[in-house]
Amino acid sequence: MTYALKLNRPERKLLRRVFIDEGHLTFIISDYRSKLNHLNHLRVLNCPMVILTAILPPVSVTELIDVMRISNPVIIRACTARLNIRYIVQRYKAGSSIKVACEIAQRRRIGSERGIFYYWSRDLAEELADALRASGFSNCQYYHSTSDSKDEVTEE
Q1: Model confidence over 87-141: pLDDT tens digits?
Q2: CA distances from 3 to 56, 86, 99 (A)
Q3: In-domain check, residue 75
């Protein structure tokens, strides 16, 4: 913040705007990423702020505006579809999610494609990572919300 204030001194005015990517995280995960609670202090820089988010539902816009203390926002909604990304939702029988995920990974193993599996529990995410490594995906790692950083992943 000190650096940004120096850039934006009246005699310099080098800071033209501030961009915040994944803006929804300012109130969704601020419980364990406490620094996110301070992003609203950026408004003292007296320059336009652009807050980007691809997943904020319309019902939560007011909350984002309140958390960031934004006045007179201009909201732009546009399609975020990307042709190079494919989403699959797979139903499975109770207790078979690890097996099903491994089968999907094996079927989709083409060239350098990558994939992400979302799990509702830390234990299942770790179990899946272990199962995928055992299936030949040697670089498979997991990340979860209680990790300190994305660098904190399993290493074997």
Answers
A1: 778 888 888 999 999 998 888 876 677 788 888 788 888 999 999 999 888 888 8
A2: 30, 40, 50
A3: no
| 3-state SS assignment for residue 18 | strand
Residue 28's domain comprises 2-68
Max mean pLDDT among 25-29, 80-84, 86-90, 137-141 falls in 137-141
Residue 101: count of CB within 10 angstroms of its CB: 21
Q: What is the C-alpha radius of gyration for the chain, rounded to an integer number of angstroms? A: 21
Q: Which two tokens stand for residue 131?
A: 């199962």
Same domain, 13 and 53: yes
Query: Are 13 and 60 found together in one domain?
Result: yes
Between CA 120 and CA 118 the distance in angstroms is: 7
What pTM does this model have? 0.49
